[in-house]
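### Sample
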Amino acid sequence: MAEVVKLERHDVVATITVDYPPVNALSAAVRGGILRCMNVAIADPEVKAIVLTCAGRTFIAGADITEFGKPPQPPTWDEFMAVIEDSPKPVVAAIHGNALGGGLEVALACHFRVATKNAKLGLPEVKLGLLPGGGGTQRLPRAVGPELAVKMIVGGDPITARDALKSGLIADIVESAPAGGQVFARKVLTERLPVGKLRDDDSKLAAVKADRSIFTNAVASMTRRARGLEAPFAAAEAVGAAIDLPFEDGLKKELEGFNKLLGSDQSRAQRYAFFAERAANKLEGLPEGTGPRQIERVAVVGAGTMGGGIAMSFANAGVPVTLIESTEEQLKRGLSTIRRTWETSAARGSIPADAPAKRMALINAAVGLSNVKDADLVIEAVFETMAVKKEVFAQLDKCAKKGAVLASNTSYLDIDEIASVTNRPQDVLGMHFFSPANVMKLCEIVRGPRTAPDAMMTAVSIARQIGKAPVVVGLCHGFVANRMYDPAFKQADGLLFEGALPDQIDAVLTKFGMPMGPFVMGDMAGLDIGWLSRKDRGVKSEISDALCEAGRFGLKAGKGWYKYEAGSRAPIPDPDVERLIDETLARLSRKRRAISDEEILERMLYSIVNEGARILEEGIAARPSDIDVVWLYGFGWPVYRGGPMYWADQVGLKHIADRLVFHAKQTNDPSLEPASLLKRLVVEGKLFASLA
Ligand code: 3HC
Ligand code: NAI
């Protein structure tokens, strides 16, 4: 095997380079290599300073996650960190790309850190259900103070090189990593800069030792949205140990916490989710050598709710985009919504003050479809009717350049039928974003029967480029996400007719960890659209219809399934709704019965799993983990439960199938009968994971 860590010497400076693609993860081989090179450099009398750097696209992006759960390999972390920190010669970490997790922890054991302008530094372990286990919770508070340390460790988001410099995490910003690191190492020698260890420096802890509320407030603010998660709280506790205990004892506390989390169900699920997201990017069975098409210009057609959000997603990622409407007036309205959204974010401090203007400048607004002519990718987000979609695609066929990928953001419609009005069905596919499109990460990439492999790859690659989580799905009504939620909505509706109340049903789902239940969701989306569509189709849903007839259209009307106080989005259960339900049921001669939370959970969530099984059976999703990614990023499924298919494996497929049979009988609802794939897996004693 090629050496993954190399040592070079230029006069008095030795450079240790980790070269372990793709992300220089700290595998046992890398740790061993650094240890060996450190010992050689320390022993070499010519060497006066050491630079630790990486080849390829990034600095060390963390411990090697694939080694978690396997027997530990030498060298131990302690041994390896000690050789760096206790080195009698100054060690400079020269960072480019990402210094994350164990990568930043190694850098914190070095005596100095420098980074390139675009580098990101962070401790994202909580996102894997862990806490930093290589001294990060003890050294980072000493490097940047406990407030920022809590933000980085409990929140898990990285900071930029500029912020790292401001906080004292790095000593300088350099042009390039190895060269800048070597220059800095020489400066340390010539200017005789003091060489210290973070473990010995408690100066940045003094303020919090005097006033602990600095720490508790920071923790409260970072854990506000950590409902149900264990890791952020354990991580906060470990940072607390840095304040309260001597360094060595703090390290012990950290390790205890790390090991506990490493064996937890939550972390296992979160690590599964990490790899599931990456697996979803991989398109299998494509002809060899298929690559994405070059995308330089993007156009979005329709500046409504979705088109505006999609254009924002591109601008947020620094990609210029042409936003096209049918009239000046619609365009103006769309642009002003976009500007307002960014300005609100800037006012809240979640994006820089100059970001709205900079991002607006990336949006080129235009009226008329002829403006797509230079675009390599066109995303259509006009009204959801087949006739309008066809009209737009027929025009796109005339105006778009040859080879451009033509994507529809349709929620339900048949991509192939849309493609049929063009002379280039191979270029047509679905890119189904979720609302609000500038925030939600999921993008279903819908493959039609005639879509070309390189067009699919292009859509996946551009979606990743703008920070989305693309999942390739096949063609069916509602694709994966909407199709799978439908049976749950149906059960919610049924439960209402049998006697459950909206707030009971919603509470079961939020207690499970979903961000909201179906009734709050309905209120947010507005109930009138579904009502009008039911009237159009001559379909009835007595309770929902009665609600709309009473003018309860949801949040925008101040009342729907819940009531809302003026200016508030907080749903309040409303006795009027219960009365309305009672009256409707009495009119239908139906009686309410007591329904347990368990029944609600089983009927709603098991029917989701069941539909997932049908989707797998039909090949609409390639892997169970793809379905899980859809739920994690499309509906906010709690990441510590991995996703519905992963969760089903943990619950037990036999139990789920048995309960589905029970509820199907009890409610006389054949849609609850277990899917044949589910039954087969039960008979074979297998899990969904066996299909991966
Ligand atoms: N260990 C093992 N493999 C890793 C890895 C890691 N820490 N980080 C990334 N990879 C793998 C990915 O699985 C992927 O493999 P694949 O090509 O076979 O699918 C490949 O590297 C490239 O990753 P991405 O597709 O994510 O590449 P990007 O360029 O989009 O992102 C990244 C790069 C920002 C580094 C991102 O991969 C990332 O966030 N990685 C995880 C970082 C992390 O969580 N580090 C902490 C680890 S835990 C730890 O350090 C514990 C310590 O405190 C003791
Ligand atoms: P919307 O009604 O807010 O916006 C549609 C826009 O398209 C309008 O501004 C309209 O003026 C414009 N438009 C219509 N014809 C046009 C043409 N020929 N040229 C240029 N612009 C034209 O609708 P919304 O909600 O943004 O939905 C758009 C699409 O996205 C639909 O297919 C919908 O199913 C899908 N979608 C909607 C989601 C949602 O939550 N709203 C979620 C995911 C997908």
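The chain has 29 helices and 17 strands. This sample (3-hydroxyacyl-CoA dehydrogenase NAD-binding domain-containing protein) is used throughout the tutorial notebook.
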